[in-house]
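Lay summary. Proteins are chains of building blocks that fold into shapes, and those shapes determine what they do. In this project we predict the shape from the chain. Here is one chain we studied, written as its sequence of building blocks.
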Amino acid sequence: MEIAKKSLIEVIAGIWILAGIVILAGIFLVSNPLAYALGEVVGSLTSSLMMIHLYKNIEIELDLPEKKAVNHSRFMSALRSFIELGVLAGSFYISHLVLPYTVLAGLFGRKLAALAVPFYEERKHKKKKGE
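And here is the predicted shape, written in a compact code that computers can read:
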């Protein structure tokens, strides 16, 4: 689980790095920069919390019998999806405070950061090997 914890930290760091890039890239191009930035923060915060939830559930599932672990994993995955959809749907109701498309960008940050971790690890490994 030590590797999983390290990966969790790397993914969460990646989520917030991507959030910073999205905020800096677009904050000067929109009419409501505060709502733009808050939308990205809400989406990234939700993504970070969903990653922590995933990590905690993996710990639980490792101790369960296989069939219960699979069912638990499916249920928790659906729960995370419903929470993300709820956050996105809620952003449409308060679109004057948070922009829904930046909330969506923050939610996608979880996927992009998870995809970027192997490249980061490979680069880190090459750098260590070169020393």
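What the prediction tells us: Helices lie at 2-26, 33-62, 66-93, 100-130.
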